[in-house]
Structure formats: C-alpha cells, structure tokens
Amino acid sequence: MLQVLSSAWALLLGVGLLMLGNGLQGTLLGVRGDIEGYSTFVMSIVMSGYFVGLLFGSWMAPGMIRRVGHVRVFAALASLISAVMILYPALTSPVVWVIGRLIVGFCFSGVYVTAESWLNNAADNENRGKALSLYMMVMMAGLVSAQAFLLIGDPADYLPFVIASIVVSISVAPILLSISPTPAFDTAKRMTMRELLEATPLGCVGMFLMGGMFSAIFGMSPVYATSAGLDLQQTSLFVAFFFIGPLVTQYPLGWVSDRMDRRQLIIIIAGLAGLTSLLAMTLSNQFALLLGAAFVIGGAINPLYSIILAHSNDYLDHDDMASASGGLVFINGLGASTGPLIIGWLMGEHILGPGGFFLFLAVLLGSLVCFALYRSTQRKTLPVEETGAMAMMIPTSSPVAVEWGQEYVIETELEEQDSAEPAT
Asked: Which parts of 69-127 fold into alpha helices (H)?
C-alpha cells in the first residue's frame, strides 16, 4: 500500500479533489433547482445529462489520450469542468444546465479513463488489488466529503459553485507537478453485445439495472431531499449516507461473495435493499430512519455492482474478461442515462411525489431479485472453489478500471492455480 502511495500519491490526491468537486456540484444543482422553482422532471433531465455525457465520453476518451497524451487530456478536461461549474449560477437556465451536465459528464469520463490507466500502470502484480481498492476508497471518500462543503455558503449564491470550481482546478496541480511517467495507452477489443448476453445474461441485465439505481442515488437524491422538505444540513447528511454505507459494507460483502453462491448473495442483498426502499417511501418525516434507509440502500447497491461483475467473470474465459468489460460498462451507462428521467416523472406532484424516488429503487431491486431467481433455474451453480475473486468497483468506474479489475482477478486465479499444483 505504501508503495502505491509513493508512486501515485499525486494522482490519488487529484482524483480525490475531483470527486469532491463532482459530488458537490451534483448536490448543489439539486438544491439550486428547487430554489429556482424547477420541477422534478426538469431536474431529472438536467441530472440525466451527466450520465449521457459519461456514456459518450467513455467511448471517445481513449482516442483523445492516444493523440495528445494523459497529462494534456487530464488538464484540459479538468479545466473545462471547472469553467462549467462557474457558469451554473451565472446562467440559471435548464437548457444551459443540461448542456453543462453533458459537458461535465463527458469530461469526467475522460478524466476517469486517464486516471485509471495511469494508476494501473503504476501498480504491479503484487499490489494491483491494493491499488484498485485504494483508488475506489479515495473516490468514495471524495463523494462523502463533498456533502460537508454543501453547508459552506448559500446555494442561492455563487460561493458554493465557486468552491466546487476551485477544488477541481486545484486537482490538476499535483498531477502536473508529478514526475511519474505517463503510460502507453491500450484497451482490449470488446465482445459483441450478443456474445456478452449469451455468456452472462444476469451480468448484462444486472449492469443495466445497476446503472439506473446509481444514477438515482448520485443524480436524484438531492432532488428528492428538497422535494421532501429537508433543509440544507439534512440534505447534506442524507446524500452522504448513500456513500458512507458502501465504505462500511464493501469489504464484508466482498469477503462473503468469495465464499458463497453469488446469485444467492445478489438475491439476498437486492431483496433487503428493495424492502428498505419500500419502507423508506413513508419515512420523509422521520429523518433518523431516513438516514438509516440511505445507509442500507447505498451500502447494498455499490457492492452489488462489484458482485455482479464478479459473477459475470465466473462464466467468462480469462481471454474474454477484459474484452467483456467495455460492453458491461456501456450497458451500465445506458441504464444510468434513463434512470433520472423515469424518477423525475414518478416524482411529479401529479404522480407519486417524492416517494417515487424510493419506489423506482424498489422496482429495480425487485426486478434484479426476480431475474436472479429465474437465472438460478436456467444455469447450474458453480462450486465456490471454481469461482474467481471479487475486485472492488464502484459504478462510476470507466472501462479502463473494469479491465484493470479483470486483470487483477485473472492474476489472482493464476496464482491460486500455481500454488495448488503439486511440486515436481
């Protein structure tokens, strides 16, 4: 771990600051939209823009990196993100906000691809898993910390948006001042969607549903909070608890995932989170219980992403794992792009109101349970000793990070096979 920190501290610091700015701008827009009087459906369009940009960026970023290099791409995209964050309070128009979110999503996708390929290059076979875990923890910690900054200044004013912009601008400094070498860039050829669906139906359906769930949490939780009448401090805590949950549950659930049938674990976790979501529909007036629900739901959804990826790997050959990652991330992005729009409609005052937020999560989690149960009847369960390790991931991971995780899984499995072979 110290070796990873010594070789990639600048990158990790920059990523942490970027995620702080990203988490802050998303929550700020949710609160500011309520101040401006925008409907929940209008805000859902604004929030979905980020995920559409993220989807397109994941396809275009590799080409940009090959043309001009990691450092220039990182610096240019981070600077553009910073500029857009300043424009949000200056041009309070839904159209401008949608365009801004598209740009920010596109830029963050490129930033993720750059950072993850850089950090992967800094790791070796012995510390790849630790480097990946550290990177994901830094990202999640940045999202949690961002919610505390919401309380600095009035969201109706410029100051909070200026702070978000400054944080993103500062994130570039440790990267540009770093003397770490930049890596050559390459990505695996992707499997076709048909091949991927045939290899891992639960992985494909699960990734689509996970995209909708994460976009609900990341994009629409502050919109729910303002619609439910939570004040600024309560909104900050509510959103933060969605990301505090996985910091606590990721490792325990990963440990269990390596020791039992992953389909059964998916059913149990998704079922518990789904029931919690249904219960949370009635908790808007009981803030302490609402925080508990956010903790449980967030603590289930983020690890589920990693578990579904691990389940997919169980039915893929080593040669196909890296090529499958791009398709799985793309499917996740499709779900994320549509999620906020559906929630925004459900949360309309003439439909379900704020409770539509949790109903959406409950329906998607219930759908995951039902499909996992169905798949349990269609394919024989693999013995636990034949399943691979689980790599820690979060739904914001780019195809590069997922490929990186696949490399770690393959290396771990090969090491286990070598150690199991009798000496000759």
From this structure: 70-90, 94-122
Single-letter amino acid, residue 297: I
Tokens matching residue 228:
């439910």
What parts of the chain have a pLDDT lower than 70?
A: 1-8, 120-130, 178-190, 318-323, 385-386, 388-391, 397-401, 403-424
How far, in Å, CA of 319 to CA of 231, rounded?
Answer: 51
pTM of the model: 0.85
What distance in Å separates the CA atoms of residue 254 and residue 269, rounded to the nearest whole number? Answer: 12
How many residues are there in the chain? 424
Distance CA 200, CA 207 (A): 11
- Measured CA to CA in angstroms, residue 92 lies from 85, 154, 257 at distances of 12, 15, 46
Burial profile 222-240: b = 16 or more Cβ within 10 angstroms, e = fewer: bbbbbbbebeeebbbbbbb
For residues 55 and 60, what is the distance between their CA atoms, to the nearest angstrom? 9
CB-based contacts of 411: which residues, under 8 Å, 6+ apart? Answer: 125, 128
Asked if residue 336 lies in contact with residue 184, where contact means CB atoms within 8 angstroms, the answer is no
Give the integer Cα–Cα distance in Å for 415 and 318: 13
Give helix then strand counts, H and E, for the chain.
15, 0
Question: Is the Cβ–Cβ distance between 171 and 14 less than 8 Å?
Answer: yes
Question: Which is nearest to 308 in space by CA: 366, 357, 251, 269?
Answer: 269
C-alpha 382/C-alpha 260 separation (Å) is 10
Give CA 250 to chain center in angstroms: 13
Structure tokens at 22: 């990203």
Say which residue the tokens 């996708």 belong to.
Answer: 109
Q: Where are the alpha helices (DSSP H) in 150-220?
A: 159-177, 193-199, 201-215
